[in-house]
Amino acid sequence: MAKMVAKFGRRFEGKVAIATASTKGISFATAERLGLEGASVVISSRKKENVDEAVEKLENKGIEVLGVVCHVQNAQQRKDLVQKTVEKYGKIDVVVSNAAVNPSVEPLLKTPESILDKIWEINVKATVLLLQEAAPYLQKGSSVLLISSVVAFQPWGAMAMYGVTKTALLGLTKALAAEMAIDTRVNCVAPGLVPTHFAAYITKDEAVRKTAEEKTLLKRLGTPEEMAAATAFLASDDACYITGENLLVTGNPL
Ligand code: NAP
């Protein structure tokens, strides 16, 4: 652990960071990175067993961590996430809004209304509602990070509606940045393909995975830690003159 801290520096010493959907994958890696750099991190997701397991992993690395069950579509649980953070740490410096679902591979014109509502509510609306809860506690110099996707730029096929919600996040980033300036910066990271549970339906097929790797200039898929590094940069004071921006972290697929 001491080695990792030395490698990463301590840009988040004294800061408090909340991350949604952060018990696995990209957001877990982000919470870990912020924690290793000195932040007190508040992690959350729907299932208590996932929250408990993630808390234990982070504590084992010497990170100050609070775990809260929060399905981002649930108003009371969003409130709890913010209130429990403030009760324990007294303030909020960083919010990483990461939760997303892609429950349908149907063409847009065949997707049931209930599914359209769910994708929109979790992928877009919940971010606004969570920030409404968090806003009174956000400090001067605070930072909000939204997690979009490379498919935001080409939202079609099996990821059409999901992709459109990720396109919406690019605009939401700019709208929130304007509204939350001067005290809070708002930026967005758009990952390329990262072999997590979420992307397993694509990456588990060896041939599809190989093709995706070959398409990138760097000839490989990204890792959760690489997405976390970009997110941590934008959340840190190293990015103090950057707001309203969308950063692609993709290895540049052709
Ligand atoms: P992941 O590894 O599958 O992790 C998903 C996490 O989200 C888990 O901790 C899960 O825990 C939690 N979760 C799921 N639904 C939730 C909800 N409604 N409310 C709260 N927590 C919820 O996923 P990932 O690949 O890291 O994806 C993270 C983000 O990156 C998403 O926004 C995704 O769109 C974006 N992204 C991913 C890729 C990729 O290739 N992986 C590419 C571009 C963008 P519980 O089951 O306990 O809730």
From TrEMBL:
InterPro entries: NAD(P)-bd_dom_sf, Sc_DH/Rdtase_CS, SDR_fam
Domain of life of the source: Eukaryota
UniProt xrefs under Gene3D superfamilies: NAD(P)-binding Rossmann-like Domain
Family: Belongs to the short-chain dehydrogenases/reductases (SDR) family.
PANTHER family, A to Z: DEHYDROGENASE/REDUCTASE (SDR FAMILY) MEMBER 4, DEHYDROGENASE_REDUCTASE 4
Record-given protein name: Tropinone reductase-like 3
Source organism: Durio zibethinus (Durian)
